[in-house]
Amino acid sequence: MIELQNVTLTFPDGDRRKTAVDDVTLRAEAGRVTGLTGPSGSGKSSILAVAATLIRPDAGQVLLGQGSGQVDAAQLSGREAARLRRQRVGIVFQQSNLLPALTSREQLHVMGRLGGSWGQRQRRELEARADELLDAVGLAAHVHQRPHQLSGGQRQRVAIARALVHQPEILLIDEPTSALDQERGAEIMELIAGLTRDRLTATLLVTHDLVHREALDDLITVVDGQIAAPTRA
Ligand SMILES: Nc1ncnc2c1ncn2[C@@H]1O[C@H](COP(=O)(O)OP(=O)(O)OP(=O)(O)O)[C@@H](O)[C@H]1O
């Protein structure tokens, strides 16, 4: 689970500051896909960046997990936040940011190894998990291909598999369908919904258009940096 409590984020704007996120409280629960929607510039990506621990808010709490494992990411140093991300957070941005020289399988291996020190047993487990994930996203036949040999939808699938390889509790995705046609977009959304339920990740997803809203469990609308309407999707 991830919960933002009374989060405010401002950016420098000339000699003043602009409020991008204005006292936002929201929660994304394990095993559910929570959509963040709203007009351009309303603050969706800023909220996602705070949830991803990539930006520390000016005020508020960013609570990851529950019980004794709960951490307030807003209190962590940059180094601690980076460690938390490597262990507990999966991130998929609009551009898949795959490394051009690596095959699909190698993209997952590299990401998986960032999480810690690796003995032989962990390495074998990681490699098995990478292949299982590439299979789960429908790319078993493409493990040896590099990004330029894949379609946009296939690259997006590699990016999703890569974000899950360290078994994160939280999955954050920015506009997963923006570069895809409607049919491929629907397939990606279904895939995300299935992985979320199977792996019990708390998935928070920014989406501009609501064509694919049936794949969402909850929907939060952001207007002018504030939550306008949290609803069941
Ligand atoms: N790094 C930054 N520096 C200054 N202002 C920023 C920065 N990032 C975002 N903003 C501003 O914060 C506000 C919210 O931007 P954000 O990108 O979060 O909106 P969004 O809803 O994701 O927009 P879009 O749907 O167009 O991607 C906007 O006014 C934007 O100009």
TrEMBL record:
Short name of any one Pfam family annotated for the protein: ABC_tran
Start and end residues of each ABC transporter domain: 2-233
GO terms for cellular component: plasma membrane
GO molecular function, one term: ATP binding
Transmembrane segments: none
Domain of life: Bacteria
Keywords recorded for this protein, A-Z: ATP-binding, Nucleotide-binding, Transport
PANTHER family reported in the protein's UniProt record: ABC TRANSPORTER RELATED, IMPORT ATP-BINDING PROTEIN
Protein name: ABC transport system ATP-binding protein
Organism: Zhihengliuella flava
